[in-house]
Amino acid sequence: MERAADEKGYYVSREMANGFLASEKRVNRFLGLGFLCGALTGIPIILFENQPAMKLLGAAGIGALGVCALIVAMFAEQEQYKVLKEEPLLFDPEVRSSLMEEYVALKKKATLIAMPSTILFVLGILALVFSIRGIFPWSSLSVLIFLGLGLGLCGFVISLGTIETYEILVKNEQYATRFLFKAKRRIKEKIAKL
Question: pTM value?
Fold first, then answer.
């Protein structure tokens, strides 16, 4: 895309915004899957308590899937959209208003997912702590602790990642005034002058 004539920001078309949203949605899903698998590594440990080889193999397999998902998430972000996180953005008024409408509707849905996911995650952490301390005995039902922990974490990561993606676009003025944003931009300008 091209810069505006007054150099106040990077022009974003509706197509580019849609591509960015789709790219970040994919990244958030892989991040959520990676955290889900990380939490699920406890399931083989509970299920195969008396079989050390199966316990280790199951936990390592699920953990490897989680690490693979996190690696894919790191590389799933497309280069062409990185500029949207690095520059102040300019939109046509109708594009901005349609993105704002989508953001308002999506934020309600994402909050409806994030709140129960957070509660599920916190309950999973508490149940895990109580089980480790011996307050709750470990049993085959303890698998539900890790399942709840993983699902809560996955839902939380995906929903908050989705909200943040839209906020980069619709609340770009606030995003562009953050200290980290300004510091990265200054460093980039100094490197370009060398």
Answer: 0.79
